[in-house]
Amino acid sequence: MTKSQATMNAPPGGDHSRPVAAISVPAKTWIAVIGATLGAFMAVLNIQIVNASLADIQGAIGAGIDDGGWISTSYLIAEIVVIPLSGWLAQVFSIRVYLLTNAMLFLTFSAACALAHDLPQMIALRAVQGFSGGVLIPMAFTLIITLLPKAKQPIGLALFAISATFAPAIGPTIGGYLTENWGWQYIFYVNLVPGSLMVAMLWFSLEARPMQLSLLREGDWLGIATMAIGLAALQTVLEEGNKDDWFGSSFIVRLSIVAAVALSVFLVIELTVKKPLLNLRLLVRRNFGFGILANFLLGIALYGSVFILPVYLSRVQGYNAEQIGMVLAWTGLPQLLLIPLVPRLMQRFDARLIIAVGFALFAASNFMNIYMTNDYAADQLFWPNVVRAVGQAFVFAPLSAVATAGIEPENAGSASGLFNMMRNLGGAVGIALLQTLLTKREQFHSNVLMQSVSLLEQATQARVEKLTQYFVSHGVIDRIDASRRAYVAIGKIVQKQAFILAFSDLFFLLGVALMVALAASMMLKKPGHVEAGAAH
Q1: DSSP letter at 533?
Q2: How close are the terminal C-alpha atoms of the chain, in Å?
Q3: How far, in Å, CA of 116 to CA of 199, rounded?
Q4: Are the CB atoms for 28 and 204 separated by under 8 Å?
Q5: What is the CATH number of domain 284-406+414-451+505-525?
Q6: Does residue 223 contact residue 276 with C-beta atoms inside 8 Å?
Q7: Quick one: DSSP state of residue 249?
Q8: What share of the chain is helix, strand, coil (3-state, %, to 5)?
């Protein structure tokens, strides 16, 4: 580790007599990085894999549709609160103890979730699972930017990209397959085998270091409290707002006030105390600040597209969980082939160019879906999904490398916490906005379309008569009843078309968000010492 840190802190354009490929990293370090990124992959995967099976879980434990949403919300709240805490807690308890403890807790509570009998049990277990799983995400990122020298970090960040972009894309595929063929319990059991491998790798590779429990006395406890309250309230508002009619609900209004006050106080505390929980001054560094903005917008598009595609396929095309998973597989599988090539591309090209190409392709994949029709299904989504996969594969590793270039080891925990928290927060904001806009745009398009479906129009009358005859010929004896069914059928056709137009609008908005991310990435300054390492 000392050698790696020394290499990382070497001045730009240091000793050129030694080729990049000659920099060696101990095998134990790679085992630690791979084990940690495997943990991050499972923690992120667990969000989407459960969402794909939520209806089955709700039915099994007797939860209603509204209350059942807390199965996901409790996990997300715990995860987003612990991510920024992890850097400090790792200092207190040592990386080895902190990471191994939470890895084992994550596996334990994954198995326990499969055995839950009712909703309160499931919510509590998911919260603890989210708290322990949330640790795995920033700690993997921290190990990459502290243990690996700059020349090798793109390889580590490419590994981490598999958890950041591949896991959300492939989650519905795995969740749908397991639920349809094995039962919803296996979406939790699936963590056990790779999780055991992760624990073994971390146990073997992480060095034992003394705990610094004295840091607990110096902890930024007021900052921790305000951050935890603020983020928990904000996440709840974003998850539950659309369902509760946003500010039409007193519950959402109160929580919004709590979030605004708590997070404002947190910002003041972090900028004034001697030893803040998070070094927010990192945000004024040009590359880290613009990198965070691009990463936030990436979170909106990444989690937003994973949200709207399954909703579209189930609501408009009537696909089941397994069929949806097969469609979304093409947003994930190509990434497995492309992500390992990104470090080599970073050797040959400016990392900012790769980021720009990635965001442009990701945006294009959304713009390809803005003219959807009634027949727009798996075949029509194939190429947009492949283009999206290529774009996502190109974005994350170079964006992370450029944004964190020059981050000192003592600020690595803050940088990791902020970078990963903002991507997850972007996802929560994106999903909340898309849920609301889907409802609003469907209503808008329904109103516009209904103006064209006037009963005074000859075309409408002909369509009603044709449908009435259809129902009469299919066993509806009463002609009045058949006519009523014809009107209902026309209403459903209009609503379906309105939904298709609304989904097209959402894809357009995601494309615009990614174009803004592209603009932010163009503001990044080329760091002289961001180098791509050769394969180890």
Answers
A1: P
A2: 17
A3: 24
A4: yes
A5: 1.20.1250.20
A6: yes
A7: S
A8: 80, 0, 20
**CA–CA dist 493, 496 (Å, integer):** 5
What's the predicted TM-score (pTM) here?
Answer: 0.85
Find, among 133, 159, 128, 131, the residue nearest to 32 by Cα: 159
Angle, in degrees to the nearest 10, between helices 378-404 and 321-338: 40
Long-range contacts of 119-124 (CB under 8 A, 24+ apart): 119/61, 119/62, 119/63, 119/67, 119/68, 119/70, 119/71, 121/61, 122/57, 122/61, 122/63, 122/71, 123/70, 123/71, 123/74, 124/74
**What is the per-residue pLDDT across 143-189, written as a single tens digit (0 to 9) for each?**
998 899 988 889 999 999 888 888 888 888 888 888 888 888 899 99
Instruction: Write phi, then psi, for 126 (nearest 5 degrees).
Output: -70, -35
Alpha-carbon distance of 333 to 316, in angstroms, equals 25
Tokens representing residue 31 in the block: 């085992």
Q: How far apart are CA 271 and CA 279, in angstroms?
A: 8
Number of helical (H) and strand (E) elements in the chain, helices listed first: 21, 0
Which pLDDT score is estimated for 183? 87
| Amino acid in position 62 | G
Enumerate the domain spans of the chain.
Answer: 25-219, 220-276, 284-406+414-451+505-525, 452-496
Tell me the per-residue pLDDT of 427-453, one tens digit each, with 9 for 90 and over: 889 988 998 999 899 989 988 887 776
CA 43, CA 102: separation in Å to the nearest integer? 11
DSSP 8-state secondary structure symbol assigned to residue 525: -
d(CA 87, CA 99): 11
CATH code matching the domain that covers 25-219, chosen among 3.40.50.720, 1.10.287.600, 1.20.1250.20, 1.10.3720.10: 1.20.1250.20
Provide the pLDDT confidence category of residue 16 given band limits of 50, 70 and 90: very low
Average pLDDT over residues 486-498: 78
The candidate with the shortest Cα–Cα distance to 362, out of 424, 419, 300, is 300
Residue in 334, 300, 330, 283 with CA at minimum distance from that of residue 435? 300
pLDDT at res. 100: 96
Over 90: is that where the pLDDT of 483 sits? no
What percent of the chain lies above the pLDDT cut of 90? Answer: 51
Residue 534 burial (C-beta neighbours within 10 Å; 0-12, 13-18, 19+): middle
